[in-house]
Amino acid sequence: IELSHLIRESPKASAKFRKSLAPKLEQTLAPVAEVYEALVLGTRDYVRKNGFEKVLIGISGGIDSALVACIAVDALEPENVIGVFLPSRFTTDESREDAEQLAESLGISLLTMEIDEIFDASHNALKLHFKNGKPGVTEENLQARIRANLWMALSNKFGWLVLTAGNKSELSVGYSTLYGDMAGGFCVLKDVYKTLVYELVEYRNECEKVIPQRTIERAPTAELRFGQTDEADLPAPYCELDKILELYVEEDRSVEEIVRAGFKESVVRKVTALVNKNEYKRRQSPVGIKITPRAFGRDRRMPITNKYRDF
After folding, report:
1. pLDDT over 70 for what percent of the chain?
2. 268 contact partners, CB below 8 Å, separation of at least 6
């Protein structure tokens, strides 16, 4: 794909980034670089051709939102990107510091609003009906939906398009909150597996170091409860999960074939069951950029209601 003329004409975060990328324009882009530039181009086209000037990104201090912020800045220029940081009692100091450092490095505005007061008010309103039950996933999802409500209020007031930060690994197995972190107008990483997210971040930081190293090295977490980590909640670590997903989603391999490829049967069955179960969530997710042979929605669209349970 010839991207050099598009890159030369596109606005970038800084002259340093443009200079670092220039040598690559004289030759075919490496796969990761090509994916990154495709995400930049796709984001710019979607935002501009749909009449938006500015975008909003929920900055969490995590790696996914950091990558989306970089892509948005490279596509639209820093003054057109607004970060929104919405910490709660579960948000660590590290996340706050990394979110602020990222915004400063990229030169974007960062709005900060604490959500504990809203969370407590919502919890108190529901307490009687919840019968003082033990807090669980419902309370975690409530936080995600509070954040989405504030994003959409800002979007509605100022006309900013909300870019979501969910990736293909999470969307595959439903590790996302409907009307929460899935809420928005465009999903930049919709077709990007988590392991590729790390490669893209490494590539972007080689061009110009803007994402804090701690953001890359910390265990991924939604910080919806104390001590929570993504990989403890998921059926397998991302490095294993993504390989299973690629075989199942992209290559249409059966459970038996994936097991023969060297994966534990109980893990494969759990992963594939989650993929099948969460079709209804993916149907309600924003559109995104296709970079793989089989993207959700466009290429892989399964019946939501069916009697089949073993694919």
Report:
1. 89
2. 244, 255, 258, 259
